[in-house]
């Protein structure tokens, strides 16, 4: 108890830390010279820029800094450098404002004991129709009940830590919260690593439909999940070593990303998805110009 009493606390909200009422108008993220602080250099001089609405995949070996980078965007770990979200430095804003608008779905989401309603809308900001719609759009509920055949409702009981729900269901509940917030940026921290490929596809489809205007950053467990993304960020020993479209990285036989794909056991399928995404992106750009 004493250790928890003397632990450093996060800064409290202040008036000058409130962002403008219109913020965030976009999900653009800019990172400059980001270093980890107060410990080993898990992150080393990370610099990149993500445009609003882009889908970015992050890959790398275990310990390369993928999760640390995601946590640094939410100011959950001490870092040095500049992180801007929609043109405003995150260091200058209140934590509640930042974390309300930059959502994260972790690999093992934890629910609170209570009801499904409380877990989806803990502050009671939405009516039942809106809550049910969010749960249906994420695939957790069908018109007749739960997606797994169970009879779920907003008043369904959630046990401690959500132990009466599967990992995939907990992911979908977390996604429903993000949909309700209409978040402008969403981080998936290997969120689909513990679910089957069908649930993974369901989550990705829900994100593409309900959060199609949001910036998406995915720490990938399955390469197939990110092969049609706009760009892929490759980390190695805390450094950003590659950052480009999947197809461009695949054309470089010496690239780290190419080696991951070649050794995946599903090389041909991954190449096909990346090439199809390249063609779709090119057609979209052509139609935009017209």
From TrEMBL:
Domain ABC transporter: 28-262
Membrane topology: Multi-pass membrane protein
Keyword match Repeat: no
Keywords: ATP-binding, Hydrolase, Membrane, Nucleotide-binding, Transmembrane, Transmembrane helix, Transport
GO CC term, one of those recorded: membrane
Superkingdom in the source lineage: Eukaryota
Keyword Transcription regulation belongs to the record: no
InterPro entries listed in its UniProt record: AAA+_ATPase, ABC_transporter-like_ATP-bd, ABC_transporter-like_CS, ABC_transporter_C-like, P-loop_NTPase
GO molecular function: ATP binding; ATP hydrolysis activity; ATPase-coupled transmembrane transporter activity
Compartments it resides in: Membrane
PANTHER family per the UniProt record, alphabetical: ATP-BINDING CASSETTE SUB-FAMILY C (PTHR24223), ATP-BINDING CASSETTE TRANSPORTER ABC4 (PTHR24223:SF356)
Protein name: p-loop containing nucleoside triphosphate hydrolase protein
